[in-house]
Amino acid sequence: MTAVGAVREVEAGERRAALVPVAVGALVRDGLEVLVEAGLGAHCGYADADYAEAGARIAADAGEVHRDAQVIVAVAPPGDAAIGRLGPGHALVSFLDPLGDPARIRRIADTGATALAFELVPRTTRAQSMDALSSQATIAGYHGVLLAAERSPRLFPLLMTAAGTVKARSVLVLGAGVAGLQAIATARRLGAVVTAFDVRAAAREQVESLGARFLAVDIAGDEQAGGYATELDAEQHHREQAALAAACADADVVICTAQIPGAPAPELVTEAAVRAMRAGSVIVDLAASTGGNCACTVPGGEADVDGVLVLGPLHPASAMPASASDLYAANVRALVGLLAPAGALAPDWEDEILQGSVVARDGAVTSARVAERLAGAGAS
To answer: Does the pLDDT of residue 379 top 50, yes or no?
Structure first.
């Protein structure tokens, strides 16, 4: 019987768990054995007893999980210690940042382990249940708005009281992907007046369907495979920044969500634009982990720029670890189901989802995109 093992996250600030009891029960019903490291769900409100009741065996430490499990599931990319525990008999399923850190994929491949990266799961209808990027971006977009509302000195909604009227606040959302759309919806539910920007013209309909105003800028942004925006040339980027500077000056809150896979986040909000905003305004940069959309963002920290608060959370989905883990574990269960159908580790490597997401196998880097990054790094 194939065993699936989940280890505790060791990266600072990471509070999610790769498996939750409901997913454990589903895997057991699928004919798999499940091991979880003791304390796996501590940040999510799940005790070891909850996992045991669902059918998991509680392992004392990560070493025991790696020794007894063939499929290792995690949230954050593995560090050197975790990579050192991998071997030819292992399949790793996790976020791996394969395009941002291709050297890590090379080190994993050198162990002989198979590795599947959630970042490269195809954006197809059939793969929706395995789309961890989207599930976690949904949480991040929701939390980003709540964080802004908490730190803002002003209420979001229009209030008419005996003491006077409180004006509805203006929220500007940059990027209308999954996180951005959830941010729009959440800000609207809180009563804010929302404007959103995306370089993809196709995003207008989605933005307006949520009741927000679409900020049109005269640039011809394209959409690449997977729904992400392509990078703009220098002249387009300058026009984009100028238009957004004017929009930021009118906003009480700016939520930044724009990212490009395998590349630094585009700088959309310049320092001059931040300094032109009203004191008391708040910027939440959900792209902080890849450098940020705001020039003043401190990844993992905050900055006060002439009275404008700039927040750069690195793990926004981890701020709501129970819900984030529930969704992520469902993604894990679905992808593991392709790796180990009928309870046995016997993947069909002709499957388009496995072909797209596998980055290392049999000692080799199997993703052409990762191999290109490695070759480019070697050439430089």
So the answer is: no
| Cα 62 from Cα 78, distance rounded (Å) | 12
Q: Rounded to an integer, what distance in angstroms lies between the CA atom of residue 106 and that of residue 2?
A: 26
If you average pLDDT over every residue of the chain, what do you get? 95
CA R_g for the chain: 22
325 close to 20: Cβ distance less than 8 angstroms? yes
Catalytic residue among 70, 134, 135, 182: 134
- pLDDT of 220 over the 70 cut: no
Tell me which of 128, 129, 323, 355 is the catalytic residue: 128
> What would the 3-class secondary structure string for 351-365 be?
CHHHHHHEEEECCEE
pLDDT value, residue 221? 57
Instruction: Indicate if 128 belongs to the active site.
Output: yes
Q: What are phi and psi of 73, to 5 degrees?
A: -120, 140
Residue 142 designated active-site:
no
Q: What is the pTM of this model?
A: 0.94
> Among this protein's residues, is 228 annotated catalytic?
yes
Domains of the chain: 3-131+320-379 (3.40.50.720), 140-314 (3.40.50.720)
Q: Is 117 in a helix, a strand, or coil?
A: strand
